[in-house]
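Researcher: Quick one. four chains, 1944 residues in total.
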Amino acid sequence: MQTLTTHPFDDDHFKEECGVFGIFGHPEAAAHAALGLHALQHRGQESAGIVSYDGIQFHAHRGLGQVGENFSSQATMQSLVGAMAIGHVRYATTGDTTLRNVQPLFADFEFGGLAICHNGNLTNSYGIRRELVRRGSLFQSTTDTEVIVHLIATSLRATVVDRMIDALHRVEGAYSLVAMSSKELVGVRDPLGVRPLVLGRLGTTWILTSETCAFDIIGAEFVRDVEPGEMVVINEAGIRSIFPFARPPKRFCVFEYIYFARPDSIVEGTSVYEARKRIGAELARESHVDADLVIPVPDSGVPASIGYAAAAGIPFELGIIRNHYVGRTFIEPSDHIRHLGVKLKHNANRAMIEGKRVILVDDSIVRGTTSTKIVEMVRQAGAREVHMRISSPPTTNSCFYGIDTPERERLLASRFDVAGMAKFIGADSLAFISIDGLYRAMGHDGRNASQPQFCDACFTGEYPTTLADYDAAGTPAQLSLLAEIA
Amino acid sequence: MQTLTTHPFDDDHFKEECGVFGIFGHPEAAAHAALGLHALQHRGQESAGIVSYDGIQFHAHRGLGQVGENFSSQATMQSLVGAMAIGHVRYATTGDTTLRNVQPLFADFEFGGLAICHNGNLTNSYGIRRELVRRGSLFQSTTDTEVIVHLIATSLRATVVDRMIDALHRVEGAYSLVAMSSKELVGVRDPLGVRPLVLGRLGTTWILTSETCAFDIIGAEFVRDVEPGEMVVINEAGIRSIFPFARPPKRFCVFEYIYFARPDSIVEGTSVYEARKRIGAELARESHVDADLVIPVPDSGVPASIGYAAAAGIPFELGIIRNHYVGRTFIEPSDHIRHLGVKLKHNANRAMIEGKRVILVDDSIVRGTTSTKIVEMVRQAGAREVHMRISSPPTTNSCFYGIDTPERERLLASRFDVAGMAKFIGADSLAFISIDGLYRAMGHDGRNASQPQFCDACFTGEYPTTLADYDAAGTPAQLSLLAEIA
Amino acid sequence: MQTLTTHPFDDDHFKEECGVFGIFGHPEAAAHAALGLHALQHRGQESAGIVSYDGIQFHAHRGLGQVGENFSSQATMQSLVGAMAIGHVRYATTGDTTLRNVQPLFADFEFGGLAICHNGNLTNSYGIRRELVRRGSLFQSTTDTEVIVHLIATSLRATVVDRMIDALHRVEGAYSLVAMSSKELVGVRDPLGVRPLVLGRLGTTWILTSETCAFDIIGAEFVRDVEPGEMVVINEAGIRSIFPFARPPKRFCVFEYIYFARPDSIVEGTSVYEARKRIGAELARESHVDADLVIPVPDSGVPASIGYAAAAGIPFELGIIRNHYVGRTFIEPSDHIRHLGVKLKHNANRAMIEGKRVILVDDSIVRGTTSTKIVEMVRQAGAREVHMRISSPPTTNSCFYGIDTPERERLLASRFDVAGMAKFIGADSLAFISIDGLYRAMGHDGRNASQPQFCDACFTGEYPTTLADYDAAGTPAQLSLLAEIA
Amino acid sequence: MQTLTTHPFDDDHFKEECGVFGIFGHPEAAAHAALGLHALQHRGQESAGIVSYDGIQFHAHRGLGQVGENFSSQATMQSLVGAMAIGHVRYATTGDTTLRNVQPLFADFEFGGLAICHNGNLTNSYGIRRELVRRGSLFQSTTDTEVIVHLIATSLRATVVDRMIDALHRVEGAYSLVAMSSKELVGVRDPLGVRPLVLGRLGTTWILTSETCAFDIIGAEFVRDVEPGEMVVINEAGIRSIFPFARPPKRFCVFEYIYFARPDSIVEGTSVYEARKRIGAELARESHVDADLVIPVPDSGVPASIGYAAAAGIPFELGIIRNHYVGRTFIEPSDHIRHLGVKLKHNANRAMIEGKRVILVDDSIVRGTTSTKIVEMVRQAGAREVHMRISSPPTTNSCFYGIDTPERERLLASRFDVAGMAKFIGADSLAFISIDGLYRAMGHDGRNASQPQFCDACFTGEYPTTLADYDAAGTPAQLSLLAEIA
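Model:
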């Protein structure tokens, strides 16, 4: 509704676009998928879907909104029968939030049904899409996932697995897929392993999902990461592993550690919480400043703050209090009220801050809007000095691998150098962790420039694949002549 | 929700499944389409959709529910920009009421976009669908309309019109289609002309729609019926007519006159209201009985009752009053209350009925449930005799041409002869108009048995096409492995 | 929402403001009350409420909207336990539609609880309200019913019945009340008997309600009208009747016969349907005109039309078709579309009307808006002559007895004489039944000018009570300083 | 809906029942009130209301749900015109959550309108209510606030202020009131000062509210606490202070510091955050245990944990991660899934906890349900030892001063001693801060047994007023015979 506006203190973050979950061999498969998607909700809040298979038929429920809004009625859950299920949560930019884009996608093939869901983003799908349309394929969504589905449909190979391999040989980019046919549950990770995918088990039940926190919620145990370029096929006969693709050195997204993943997940063998603390400690070493307090920008800045405070020997305090009851909308009858609305979500803890030299720790600066407001709020509460420390390098480039980022020119770090950024946000000093510092905190001696250990394109501009679908400005091609009105 | 039940006095009627509307050359095309769909609401109440084209892009809004529920917000209407639009209303059996089946269908083709909507039903689509899937086409809906769309997509012809002709040569059954590309508005009627399609104009604006009542609401004038087997193509250059198919004798659905069409429509040159009065008069002549009052079963029985009363010289009276405020659901805490609920929708006008010999006139008996309740109600109100007269022949067979009918074994007329039916509904006498009487009322000397002037398969079992998609029991083939949960 | 507007073809009628229902001695009392309120829905569509009593506690559910919207969940109905219940439907002008005004009202008194509901309107409540506030009574609603409740609370009499009598001695105006204490169900009708109240039974269960159609729906039998000035008290000991007030000659509202009551109700011993037919016949005798067709303005004009047509010997035809699927709102993107919207609700049956001389029969003209549009529509459909006949005298005055009427200056009959009104609505001729003709149709020799047999103040301006609460312009006093925002 | 259940990990806390806000002299009074109520949302989430006064009329909007659900439409905010407004948030036990109980209450009096809202609870209102009903007062709500309103209405004093004083002389218990007449804004605090009330200003605008965090959100400055027993009257002439009551030593609720108030509020001159840290530090001194980590139970346990960790010299770590996206409902198709649902809201940070000796810090144990689940979760994550430390004394008694507490027999501390409680929750050790330790942390030498410096009845059973409305078991008297069904 036009009378409502997004919350004025909107999160200034890159946004993870998807989380996936698949389960094979449990009588309450869909209920476990719903729990798993709850645990993955931070990876996408705009739509959620589950497809189950009962041995005869597939059952789907997909809707806009969060998991709890879509999977809380007994009638819905009881309809999702079967011992196999896959599920998906999705974040999407406004124009794309229509029901036809909600995953899992499903299609009836010659060989039967197939449901598929995708975390990541392809970088060469547009040309393939045009070619498929030319030969008579009809697209219903604007997701790149549907390109994969059509490639499977038009593959001349015989089995589902062979058709999937055939299809994936055609695409480039980042993908962690979970798919379900009437016979098997399949998980695949792109050859670079940009997005995570993990394998777990619960007794005789197998689970494939984006993060280990989804194992915890259902009491499953972590088995191992799916390897970059690996396809895992689970059926009645058991589990098998295939490596059908070329195997370049892996390039896992380092930003999963900095912000996207949940702190209680273990990602590629490393605790996210520990990684953030280590990054905070490295940041403290790199950019020391005398101060009285280390204050996290809630809530994502907390682990790095704890690491920073311990390394710097400065007390960690909750100098900014978050209001847990803030909803998504607030009405602003006037500019004056809009400005006041800034404090709806956060408030400075004046008793703690007044007269103090304060270090604020946050994980990133995207457009700089939140940082500016936070610095102003902390100053108004009486801070004598405000030093901002950021637990990532400056984000100078967009991401094309399944993360929602503003266009390059709206990134503060692409507009200013660090001194200019400090001035923009109004801080007495500003420092980011260095790119080598980040790699050190992740357990390396530093960044291997000739063969980076991670995908760090948003900091360096070094994209590990070609970007065929985007023009020089990073603008994607238009996919459909149809604008669906919600 | 499971706690609500459908109204206990549910309509015991065959149900028309669709209405279509297309408009070319009006700056408020979508608003006119919405008005037209309002006028066609009796042809389908479960979903509604409009697609417009603004010269660059197509704009769609489609939703479950009635026209008013989907096209009443200014934001929606303002988004449907363009001088060309098509729209659809749809009735669907429960299992199929999912959003992906809501029309108009839209697809991006090599040649651009195409939106299409369909009144009728194909009788050989299943085999074609299987063949298309085998070659890699992916179906998103379970509508037979999508078969046409895929046939267009995979046609090797060059123009939209040629591809449509190519596609329609493959299908059998009933179809009145309205389609819109970026260049033209197209209307087509199947060679038998089973469902109606009319052409109208409003100044320089052309309209194609199911019934003339949709012209009245927008102030347009009726030009002519689209002919069976005719394709009308409207574009900037004007209007042209093509007859690409073989031209068998026409077989218009006679039940459109009996019940489906609105009484204020002119169908194939005949006023529906007048036709119903003539059928009522013929019925009076065929099945005379001494009585005090002629009473219509509200509301569809009124025109035939007026004709019957005039021909029989017996007063026409409103002996059954309809409650206009009845909603769609009513809760029945017990069987006792459920039984009382029968009178929510209708009540006998006791002061008029008590002690009288009553003739009830209705248009059809399907399962007999409503008739049984009405007869009981009229008796309880003190009627001395209750004679039921039906302005159609007994409906002994299902329809496969776009009408929702129960399976054959649930049709009362397939279970009992007329005497048995009279006993079942509890009437003192029961008579249906004869099949020849019906044809006489429609202006013929009687039914031409070797080449019937109408499609009357629901009365005679003589289907004018093969029924490739149905088994001997009339059960359709399963189309998708997916059950979507609303 | 501001983007939605009321339907452009809004009903131009006086509106009955309330219906009441009470039941004593049935294990499913509340479910019967809900059914009864369904039958009374025509007396008020903006709110509905039921209070039951289970022997220990009262249970209430009250809400804005129609009966079906409020009493369709099993949880609600199961909560309304007890063998005694009262219910209410209400129409209210916009400003008053807040939840605190929804009836039945309930209050905890010294003697226990009392629920009360009211059909009618008091004409001296404002002064009493001021006096009660002065002594410390707090009002929660702006209904005059609450004045009665406070008078009961502050009465010094001992029993509920004596307190009710005490309270009602203070008030003037029209009231048909149904009240329920922990001991008894009470029905009262004001001494003039302006609004109806009837007594029925279903085995050993007693029912008090506004119209007999509410008996039909639950299968109860009509016993008798409650007399003007009578109080009926029903408890475990049985039923008794009290006449505590002076007994002036009765003045039942004649408009209940013309429009408010349902045609299938028997009101004060007379069938409403029959009365309307007799009024139509009298109208035909008074205002003959040569014509080809008699056409009712749907739906309320039908019975009078049948009577008119029979008396005039002119065929009755459905010349205007009503669209049953029209919702409450329609969006008008432009004036042009707004004007077209007129035909959403009704359409002229052109095939019947074209070239004919038409008599339109309606029950009343209030502001004249509907009549003007109907006449225009019928002309556009080709009528050669349009003669409007109205089955009530001109409505020149507002009602203050429980009917929603526009202010006097907006009544067409207070602005023009009949010739002026004919011109305003565009009819070739216009005639109203005469006041004496109306009385003749009701079985009298004519109106007794010195002691009219009915309340006919809306036609004559002769109000049967003083109007202490209204100024000369008929504007009511302001009751509360609070404006509640919905 | 019955199919949805409250979240399985429901908060095991005492619940503050209300927050109040009043503003005088600002053109956007209601918008500021809405912002203030957002800041007070932690004091009540089940209903919210605002009443404004525009110089002529009062305007009210009150609804069930949170502030954002009720005050986010522009239409609503624009209707709440005027330079004076009061607002209220409320938590209520299930049975009472009906719209008629939502505050502010409003009444039309002889002297004009008065709106009033209340934080606290009266302990002698039942007898007064009975007496008022006996003399003819009608109660619409079951709130004790309405008793005050009726006492004002029936007072024989002349001015609003004198009537309020007259009324408040009759009542006992805890109340921080904000009231608004057409002339003035009034704030009053009960003589013991149990609940907070603070005075602030924003230029020439005065604000009265429950906590200073509501000043921060609108940029107002804190002026001073309203004194126990003080009445502050603000009108066009300025602000004045009255002390109309006896002045016993004050007894502020110590639990406001422990849990109810926001950590960023300054209450009675003390920072809540600092108080919690001092309590944590004192707790560490009193109940030392060797351990590897101090982990807060999120989110309320964080400040005490920081204090504990610093005093104990043990690292503070986020060992339990809270899921920010958890909604209010979750469906549990089976007991198995219900059990898993425990981890929806919180998850143990296994990487941090495994093999460690852990101290969990929480603010209170009420029924023990949450503590049991948290301890189990931490053990499952591999903790070697789990020691629970609580920053309040054992809560052995119910509160009757505006806090929602379970009945006494459901309080874990009233059923077991500390050893028994430790066993119940499954901890290796359990310790509560001592009552004297709590007073020391609050800056006293210990508790003054003859004249306690705070209200600590929930720990000691020493209630500072009589409890006339409650029987020995603490069960309140029944107030109304009516059960309203939502």
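The longest strand of chain A covers residues 112-122.
Researcher: Thanks, that's what I needed.
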